[in-house]
């Protein structure tokens, strides 16, 4: 169904996007008014360095040579970035890549749980609403879903922090791992990690509201379809009908929604990790912003973008595998 | 009962059809060329105004009147608009040490929602934040919808190289992660707390999704027989796009408008809460930030400091969701026709049991 | 329920009903009151018969199908009784079954083929899963069952392995439909209910499926209830026919009886309104009025508003089923009025004796006289048509197409390094001249490129090769150069118009009728003011019978019926004052009884507006009606090529190309003379070859019964096909000296 040509085109599109983002970040660092380079120079000079020394440092940190003509500098920057050299953090004085690599798993851990659980809840709730469409449960769950859709995750995060942590003391108020336990593959440590991740994950569950409304609409459509009617007449069991017919067809369109929300959640992790003081990618980026640590900031930005690009690429590439009808064109569905 | 049967029961209408029958008689003689007929029938300006009123005022209001979601949504949104426009003149802006620190809500008329730890009146700060927020919503919402519709529409209708170029650009923006992009740009660009600029900035990464969806819908719509018919009549492209295609996209655009508005609210408050946007004024997010850094989450008696801005944020987004869901019906000709005075019910619709409104809640549509 | 028992004693040969339906009624509660969508229908379905139910859309015929399986969708309520009598064992009261029993009963005893075959399969699962899950849900042996499935699929002329391994969307419509039939027979039911099983298919495919149904019925010992809107189609197949109007049976009897001695006025009018190939076109008449709304069925006889024979009795008394006893309709003074006993209505059921013919009409005896249809049923009538005013085809053509080619690339972009893009050769080298006041009807199967060719002719599709000329000017050159002084592209644009197949989507759903109709006037008659425009629109609407026009102007398209929508679309095209209108299947979306009326209207407007038509149709009888009435030509298109063209007399009565002969065979005809028509299928393959890879040589050679070896190599060019004027065909058989005649046959049976 899906031609090689289409897959190639999609891949080219993804590469184009990565290139565009890298170029954008180069432009931001270099060309914009109040650009990063200028700002860094000023800062170093304020710290009492000689302009020459400052320039040298900036060059080192940004992996950019300010004196080179702009096109050479640009080519170098792109090549460096593609090779994983994102410069050195001003504040931490460590390679940006190492810092990001250390923080990324924690964020991925929280995000994957959040996405998994909220879509699970969303799909289940949506199916229930559709099955009892118009009933009390439907009205109740729809109201719940609208409410969930209206609450920003950080609002829920703060509320959880106030109650579950400070008032009732059930969960820790911050951090990502238990103190005083040796990091490693032991039960106490893993339990500690889960314990610390619970509140961040719970806060992200507001996403289930929107998901459940989507699922509700899809299921209602499937329930009214001809093939469902034929399946009933053929005497298929309720189990087969609900899993192989309703669920499969209704969940399919959610697939792209799901992968799209990864991008949004990555962005959201900045606020989330700030609230819970959870040391992941988001908090790292937040600090980089506050300290005007440009190399780290732009490195994080490029990394997150690439992560989103890859997620969407996977979404498009695998969609035809999930849905036999998709000939590649269905990637337009979002 | 057919429409013509109903005529007879409505004296006003019977008269009208009589009038037209009279006008048709002169042609009756020259039936061979109905094409050559010139004006016999005079439509008065009042008739025309009445029709316009019926279509654009009466029907939408009547749709909204019958839908509880729309009523609640409208009331909430109007309330916020009232706060943000007239409210600012009624309520004095607050200042530090205006009242006692951390006064509890609902205790005095002076500080109905309590005060923060510096004695600022939370009610006043909510009201004054609203106008700022509304400006951002307006700018961000319009920006998303305009750019998304125009780019998506052109890409879809023109096709070819134009489509390839626009789609590639769209794709880049779709892939930009929202909050980090805004933070980076806010740092680089001289926005100085201008609410309109902030609104636009906040949606810089979100118009892409709409553009892409609009593009694929336009691709379908331009194949539809009615657009083909318009093309064959020599109607210019821009008219086809605006008169034939855009109306079909309206429900979709409206849903996206309210989604964009919610996104603006969430991101603005979120970024102000982080303290990464430059601010000069009140904002719900700023209040959250102050409360957080003021330790309101562990101090006793400070809970309302958080709750007041939170309720403000959640309230307006509930209003927007409900409004979006119901406005979508206003653009549906089936629903609209049913609510116009002329055809209270149409025989054709009722035979088809599912022709009743099929609008699903679709806040997740984009 | 005892009635049928007693009849079976009387006549042991006939009465062995498999299913007895008594007083089946389906009701829906609606805002405006209760609606009955099936009204007190009783029927005995005899074992091993094919029973046809004919009705227009909204006559309740699909409800009858659902009722047979107790599968009426909520919130409908089904009353009455339905008894199923298996060959061995006790009768089953279908409506009394529990949910679980019903689950077993359906598909094992009575199976159903739905109208929507296109959407009857789960889109994300392969075809074989559908078979397997059905077998296991009913605890059948899966291996054995799948063996049977393969047998069924190959009986339906498909490759079992390929079909079973496909996803639903990978099969063509005709294949899906046949697969659905196989799926319905997988549990070896006794009764098969088919609800419009061929409605969405081409004639050739329809006809092929109908022959397959006959074969399958014999082989699998089935009783079939065949529901359709197409009387001629079912007439070929069914042993008995019931005609439905307004949610009840109005006439029921053996097929021959119904065709030759139709006694209910509706049946007679329906027969007359159905275009066909044999009867003279003058005899075809539309039925006035429209079918009733289920909430508001007229009192007494539900047909009285449209019936030419109606009187007070019809308004007051609901006619019972009168027995049209002797087939040689004896028009004697009848005492049927005195038979009227009010209680006889409830119990009078169509007699299960298969020989019986009943009609629910008080005046059934008078119907044949008032609504005659027989006098000119002889072939001579057709020659008279020769006098039809044909356009003069000597003058310069209005639109001429020279070797037009339209190739679509299915997949193509600058990044496709590896795969050669597939090209669909939608139109491949067609030349055709259309003159002033000319009518050309293109017929062919769907996907053969006739619509694409039509759109090319009116300048809506740019040809990839060849030229389209309007009054001698190449229109695409004109468009690119922006006009040369004598003519501008605007002139062309205005002269060539289109009327689409689906009137619902041809009008912008967001615009009122008046606004839609204003568009051409605003664009081309800027001198008119609002009131002038309005009067023109009003007078045209009145002219096509949409009055009060004032009322229609303010309606949205969804507030019009299909026929009214099509009229608006037609007027809109006419307001441009065009020279040529492409009418793309303009009547196929309408009910049978409305088609003749719409075609008449189009022909009338043609005369008034002096236009030419290019019709596109998949239905040979509609094509004949139009071409014969206007003195036009019929062109037969196959896989992007024009294989035969000529006047209807030749195309219908003297087709030269084997494909035209196949279309001719596929067109069902009500056989008023008695005796079957049918005959062997003249095609070797049911399915059309893949248009991305058309056969070499003559494109028809894969299906042609006359194909010889040379046909696989050489491509036949259009050739004089007979002595008649304008008759050409692209087949070697038209050339008496071609090497074809010495070439060996490639068909299995030999020649
Ligand atoms: S009963 Fe009367 S109205 Fe009905 S079909 Fe017969 S003659 Fe016509
Ligand atoms: S040329 Fe040969 S294959 Fe083609 S239609 Fe004629 S006989 Fe058949």
Q: Could you spell the SSE succession of chain B in H and E letters?
A: HHHHHHHHHHHHHHH
Average pLDDT of chain C, to the nearest integer? 80
- Largest sheet of chain B, if any? none
- Mean pLDDT of chain B comes to 73
User: What percent of residues of chain B are in strands?
Assistant: under 5%
- By CATH, the architecture of the largest domain in chain C is named 3-Layer(aba) Sandwich
Terminal CA distance of chain B: 41 Å
**Which CATH first-tier class of the largest domain in chain C would you pick?**
Alpha Beta
Largest interface: B-C, 57 and 66 residues
CATH superfamily of the domain at 69-101 and 122-333 in chain B: MetI-like
Could you say what the CATH architecture of the domain at 69-101 and 122-333 in chain B is? Orthogonal Bundle
What is the assembly state of the chains in this entry?
A: heterotrimer
CA-atom Rg of chain B in angstroms: 27 Å
Walk me through this protein's architecture.
The complex is a heterotrimer of chains A (334), B (366) and C (751). With 334 residues, chain A is mainly α. Chain A has helices at 4-30, 36-46, 51-62, 70-82, 96-131, 136-150, 153-167, 187-204, 207-223, 226-233, 238-251, 254-276, 281-290, 294-322. In chain A, helix 1 crosses helix 4 (70-82), helix 5 crosses helix 9 and helix 12 (254-276) packs across helix 13. The two termini of chain A are 21 Å apart. The relative contact order of chain A is 0.14. Mean pLDDT of chain A is 79; it is low at 328-334. Chain B is mostly helical and 366 residues long. Chain B has a domain at 69-101 and 122-333: MetI-like fold. Chain B has 15 helices and no strands. Mean pLDDT of chain B is 73; it is low at 1-34 and 342-366. By secondary structure, chain C is α/β, with parallel strands linked by helices. Chain C folds into three domains: 18-230, P-loop containing nucleotide triphosphate hydrolases (Rossmann fold, 3-Layer(aba) Sandwich), CATH 3.40.50; 257-371, no CATH class; 434-460 and 475-483 and 490-503 and 579-667 and 680-742, P-loop containing nucleotide triphosphate hydrolases (Rossmann fold, 3-Layer(aba) Sandwich), CATH 3.40.50.300. Helices cover 32% and strands 19% of the residues of chain C. In chain C, strands 6-7-8-3-9-10-12-11 form an eight-stranded mixed beta sheet. In chain C, strands 18-19-20-15-21-22-24-23 form an eight-stranded mixed beta sheet, with helices on both faces. Chain C is globular. Chains in contact: A-B, A-C, B-C. The interface between B and C is large, with 57 and 66 residues. One iron/sulfur cluster is lined by residues 657-658, 698, 700-701, 704, 706-707, 711, 716, 731-733 of chain C.
């Amino acid at each position: 169904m899906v031609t090689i040509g289409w897959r190639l085109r999609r891949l080219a599109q993804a590469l184009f996007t990565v290139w565009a983002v890298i170029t954008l970040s180069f432009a931001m660092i270099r060309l914009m008014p109040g650009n990063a380079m200028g700002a860094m120079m000023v800062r170093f000079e304020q710290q009492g360095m000689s302009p020459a020394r400052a320039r040298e440092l900036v060059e080192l940190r940004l992996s950019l040579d300010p004196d080179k003509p702009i096109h050479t500098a640009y080519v170098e920057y792109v090549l460096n970035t593609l090779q994983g050299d994102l410069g050195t953090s001003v504040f931490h004085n460590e390679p940006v890549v190492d810092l990001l690599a250390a923080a990324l798993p924690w964020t991925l851990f929280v995000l994957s749980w959040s996405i998994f659980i909220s879509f699970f809840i969303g799909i289940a709730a949506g199916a229930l609403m559709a099955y009892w469409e118009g009933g009390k449960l439907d009205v109740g769950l729809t109201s719940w879903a609208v409410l969930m859709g209206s609450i920003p995750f950080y609002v829920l995060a703060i509320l959880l922090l106030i109650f579950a942590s400070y008032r009732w003391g059930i969960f820790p108020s911050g951090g990502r791992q238990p103190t005083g336990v040796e990091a490693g593959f032991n039960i106490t440590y893993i339990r500690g990690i889960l314990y610390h991740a619970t509140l961040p994950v719970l806060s992200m569950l507001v996403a289930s509201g929107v998901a459940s409304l989507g699922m509700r609409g899809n299921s209602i459509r499937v329930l009214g379809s001809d093939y469902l009617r034929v399946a009933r007449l053929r005497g298929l069991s309720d189990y087969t009908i609900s899993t192989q017919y309703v669920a499969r067809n209704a969940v399919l369109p959610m697939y792209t929604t799901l992968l799209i929300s990864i991008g949004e959640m990555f962005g959201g992790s900045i606020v989330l990790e700030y609230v819970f003081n959870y040391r992941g990618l988001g908090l790292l980026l937040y600090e980089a912003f506050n300290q005007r640590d440009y190399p780290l900031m732009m490195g994080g930005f490029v990394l997150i973008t690439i992560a989103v690009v890859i997620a969407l690429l996977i979404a498009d590439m695998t969609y035809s595998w999930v849905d036999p009808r998709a000939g590649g064109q269905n990637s337009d569905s979002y | 009962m057919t429409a013509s049967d109903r005529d007879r029961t409505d004296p006003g209408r019977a008269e009208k059809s009589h009038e037209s029958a009279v006008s048709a008689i002169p042609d009756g003689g020259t039936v061979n060329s109905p094409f050559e007929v010139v004006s016999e029938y005079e439509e008065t300006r009042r008739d025309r105004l009445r029709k316009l009123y019926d279509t654009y005022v009466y029907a939408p209001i009547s749709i909204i009147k019958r839908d509880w979601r729309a009523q609640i949504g409208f009331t909430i949104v109007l309330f916020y608009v009232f706060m943000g426009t007239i409210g600012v003149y009624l309520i004095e802006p607050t200042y530090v040490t205006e009242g006692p620190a951390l006064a509890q809500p609902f205790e005095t008329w002076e500080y109905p929602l309590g005060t923060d730890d510096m004695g600022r009146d939370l009610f006043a700060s909510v009201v004054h934040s609203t106008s700022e927020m509304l400006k951002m919503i307006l700018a961000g919402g319009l920006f998303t919808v305009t750019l998304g519709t125009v780019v998506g529409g052109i890409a879809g209708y023109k096709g070819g190289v134009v489509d390839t170029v626009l789609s590639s650009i769209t794709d880049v923006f779709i892939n930009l992660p929202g909050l980090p992009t805004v933070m980076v740009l806010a740092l680089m660009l001289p926005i100085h707390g201008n609410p309109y600029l902030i609104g636009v900035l906040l949606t810089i990464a979100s118009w892409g999704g709409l553009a892409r969806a609009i593009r694929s819908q336009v691709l379908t719509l331009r194949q539809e027989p009615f657009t083909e018919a318009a093309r064959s009549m020599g109607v210019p492209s821009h008219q086809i796009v605006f008169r034939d295609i855009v109306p079909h996209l309206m429900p979709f655009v409206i849903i996206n408008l309210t989604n964009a508005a919610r996104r603006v609210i969430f991101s603005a408050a979120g970024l102000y809460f982080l303290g990464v946007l430059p601010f000069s004024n009140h904002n719900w997010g700023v209040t959250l930030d102050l409360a957080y850094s003021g330790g309101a989450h562990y101090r006793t008696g400070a809970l309302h400091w958080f709750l007041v801005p939170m309720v403000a944020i959640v309230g307006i987004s509930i209003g927007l969701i409900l409004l979006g869901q119901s406005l979508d019906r206003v653009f549906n000709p089936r629903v609209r026709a049913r609510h116009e005075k002329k055809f209270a019910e149409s025989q054709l619709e009722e035979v088809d049991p599912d022709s009743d409104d099929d609008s699903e809640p679709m806040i997740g549509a984009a | 329920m005892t009635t049928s028992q007693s009849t079976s004693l009387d006549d042991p040969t006939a009465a062995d009903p498999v299913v007895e339906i008594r007083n089946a009624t389906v009701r829906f509660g609606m805002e405006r009151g209760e609606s009955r969508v099936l009204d007190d229908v009783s029927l005995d379905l005899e074992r091993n018969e094919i029973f046809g139910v004919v009705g227009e859309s909204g006559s309740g015929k699909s409800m009858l199908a659902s009722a047979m399986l107790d599968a009426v969708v909520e919130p409908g309520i089904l009353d009455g009784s339905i008894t199923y009598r298996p060959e061995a064992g006790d009768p089953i009261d279908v409506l009394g079954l529990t949910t679980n029993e019903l689950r077993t009963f359906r598909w094992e005893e009575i199976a159903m083929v739905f109208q929507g075959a296109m959407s009857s399969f789960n889109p994300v699962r392969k075809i074989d899963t559908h078979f397997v899950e059905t077998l296991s849900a009913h605890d059948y042996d899966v291996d054995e069952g799948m063996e049977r499935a393969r047998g069924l699929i190959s009986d339906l002329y498909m490759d079992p392995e390929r079909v079973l391994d496909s996803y639903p969307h990978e099969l063509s419509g005709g294949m899906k439909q046949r697969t659905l039939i196989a799926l319905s027979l997988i549990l070896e039911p006794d009764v098969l209910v088919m609800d419009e099983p061929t409605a969405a298919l081409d004639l050739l495919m329809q006809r092929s499926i109908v022959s397959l149904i006959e074969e399958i019925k014999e082989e699998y010992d089935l009783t079939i209830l065949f529901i359709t809107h197409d009387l001629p189609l079912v007439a070929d197949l069914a042993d008995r026919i019931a005609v439905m109007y307004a949610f009840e049976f109005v006439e029921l009897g053996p097929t021959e009886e119904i065709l030759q001695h139709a006694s209910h006025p509706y049946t007679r009018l329906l027969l007359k309104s159905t275009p066909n190939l044999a009867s003279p076109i003058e005899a075809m008449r539309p039925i006035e009025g429209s079918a009733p709304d289920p909430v508001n069925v007229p009192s007494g006889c539900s047909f009285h508003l449209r019936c030419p024979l109606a009187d007070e009795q019809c308004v007051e008394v609901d006619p019972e089923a009168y027995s049209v006893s002797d087939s040689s309709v004896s028009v004697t003074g009848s005492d049927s009025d005195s038979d009227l006993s009010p209680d006889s209505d409830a119990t009078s059921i169509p007699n299960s004796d298969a020989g019986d013919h009943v009609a629910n009409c008080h005046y059934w005896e008078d119907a044949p006289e008032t609504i005659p249809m027989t006098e000119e049923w002889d072939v001579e009538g057709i020659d008279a048509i020769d006098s039809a005013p044909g356009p003069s085809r000597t003058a310069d053509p209005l639109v001429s197409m020279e070797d037009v080619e339209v190739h679509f690339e299915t997949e193509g972009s600058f990044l496709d390094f590896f795969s050669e893009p597939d090209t669909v050769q939608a139109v491949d080298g067609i030349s055709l001249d259309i003159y002033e006041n000319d009518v050309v009807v293109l017929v062919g199967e769907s996907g053969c490129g006739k619509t694409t060719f039509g759109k090319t002719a009116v300048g809506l599709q740019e040809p990839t090769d060849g030229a389209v000329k309007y009054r001698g000017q190449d229109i695409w050159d004109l468009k690119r150069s922006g006009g040369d002084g004598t003519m501008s592209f605007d002139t062309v644009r205005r002269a060539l118009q289109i009327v689409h197949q689906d009137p619902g989507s041809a009008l912008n759903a967001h615009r009122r009728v008046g606004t839609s109709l204003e568009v051409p006037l605003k664009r081309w008659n800027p001198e008119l003011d609002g009131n002038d425009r309005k009067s023109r629109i009003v007078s045209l609407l009145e002219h096509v019978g949409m009055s009060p026009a004032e009322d229609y102007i303010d309606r949205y398209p969804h507030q019009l019926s299909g026929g009214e929508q099509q009229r608006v679309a037609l007027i809109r095209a006419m307001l441009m004052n065009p020279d040529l209108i492409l009418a793309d299947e303009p009547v196929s979306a309408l009910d049978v009884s409305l088609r003749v009326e719409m075609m008449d209207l189009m022909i009338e407007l043609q005369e008034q507006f002096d236009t030419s038509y290019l019709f596109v149709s998949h239905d040979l009888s509609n094509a004949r009606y139009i071409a014969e009435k206007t003195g036009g030509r019929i062109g037969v298109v196959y896989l992007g090529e024009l294989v035969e063209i000529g006047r209807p007399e030749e195309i219908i009565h003297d087709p030269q190309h084997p494909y035209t002969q196949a279309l001719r065979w596929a067109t069902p005809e009500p056989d008023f003379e008695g005796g079957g028509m049918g005959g062997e299928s003249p095609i070797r393959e049911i399915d059309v070859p893949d248009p991305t890879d058309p056969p070499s040589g003559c494109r028809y050679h894969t299906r042609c019964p006359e194909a010889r070896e040379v046909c696989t190599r050489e491509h036949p060019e259009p050739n004089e096909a007979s002595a008649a004027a304008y008759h050409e065909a692209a087949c070697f058989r038209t050339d008496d000296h071609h090497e074809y005649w010495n070439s060996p046959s490639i068909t299995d049976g030999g020649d």
